[in-house]
From TrEMBL:
A Pfam entry, by short name: TSP1_ADAMTS
Organism: Chloebia gouldiae (Gouldian finch)
GO cellular component annotations of the record: extracellular matrix; extracellular region
Protein name (record): Uncharacterized protein
Subcellular location: Secreted
Length: 298
């Protein structure tokens, strides 16, 4: 009169990436109506069934840091914040990814700078953001920032001039590079390349800025996948971060000659992509906003 019946699958536990879909046993009577489990023999109850299920791919999103202090203590200045693209890579692993993922998803990028207005004032000291600490793990170094007077230098109070540099300590030595699986090959000879994400992580799995890992040992994020008989060609990695937080700095990328998956000599130097160029993310204090510099270094 009473028997065990497997329920239909419950919804997938994850709306994106891989989740779990479960099926449980329920007690029913002869006409299929569900009743209390005590009516069925507990010794013959089937075990729950858990199956993996794939939800839709998680969409990337922009995330921002909090706004910095105003670059001026009075009058009109700027506030800055860090904007990064994030994505759920797998259950429980939410990480920063390349910005082009958010851009290709047509998601509006939040502003990285905004105007801040304070009461009008006379000559005053203005300052940029602190530079990143260049110290390796466990070592000490110095960070700097630009200090300028809003008017002539002599009009600002020299005794109140903010510090232009201070000591800093490198990150803990538990930072390590972690990589995702390689993606599919994108094409044939000269065009084929595989891309993976490279993260700097702590021992407890947190993703931190790349500057906290040893950049000399950073794994490649882009790798050729053409046939070994393909002609040699140049392959450029992604650009590293700009060396300056304001004003004109320099950014670098690795450019190597490949044939198939091997590094070789023989690519035409006249068509080699540039490996260094100027970058101008935002004006330093008192500098009027201008057009980005596009001069390339050979």
């Amino acid at each position: 009169m009473y028997r065990w019946k497997l329920s239909s699958h419950e919804p997938c536990s994850s709306t994106c990436t891989t989740g779990v879909m479960s099926t449980y046993a329920m007690c029913v009577r002869y006409d299929g109506i569900e009743v209390d489990d005590t009516y069925c023999d507990a010794m013959t109850r089937p075990e729950p069934i858990h199956e993996f299920c794939a939800g839709r791919e998680c969409q990337p999103r922009w995330e921002t840091s909090s706004w910095s202090e105003c670059s001026r203590t009075c009058g009109e200045g700027y506030q800055f914040r860090i904007v990064r693209c994030w994505k759920m890579i797998s259950p429980g692993f939410d990480s920063s990814v390349y910005s082009d993922l958010c851009e290709s998803a047509d998601i509006a990028r939040p502003d990285e700078r905004k105007v801040c207005k304070n009461p009008a004032c006379g000559p005053q000291w203005e300052m940029s953001e602190w530079s990143e600490c260049p110290a390796r793990c466990g070592e000490r170094s110095v960070v700097t920032r630009d200090i300028r007077c809003s008017e002539e230098e002599k009009l600002c109070d020299a005794s109140a001039r903010p510090l232009a540099e201070k000591n800093c300590t490198g990150p803990p030595c538990d930072r390590q590079w972690t990589v995702s699986d390689w993606g599919p090959c994108s094409g044939g000879c000269g065009q084929g390349r595989m891309i993976r994400h490279v993260y700097c992580k702590t021992s407890d799995g947190r993703v931190v800025p790349e500057s906290q890992c040893n950049l000399d040992t950073k794994p490649l994020a882009i790798h050729p996948c053409g046939d070994k008989n393909c002609p040699s060609h140049w392959l450029a990695q992604d650009w590293e971060r700009c060396t300056k937080t304001c004003g004109i700095g320099v950014r670098m990328r690795d450019v190597k000659c490949y044939q198939g998956k091997d590094i070789v000599r023989g690519c035409d130097p006249l068509v080699k992509p540039v490996g260094k160029q100027t970058c101008d993310l935002q004006p330093c204090p008192t500098e009027p906003p201008g057009e980005p510099h596009s001069l390339d270094f050979p």
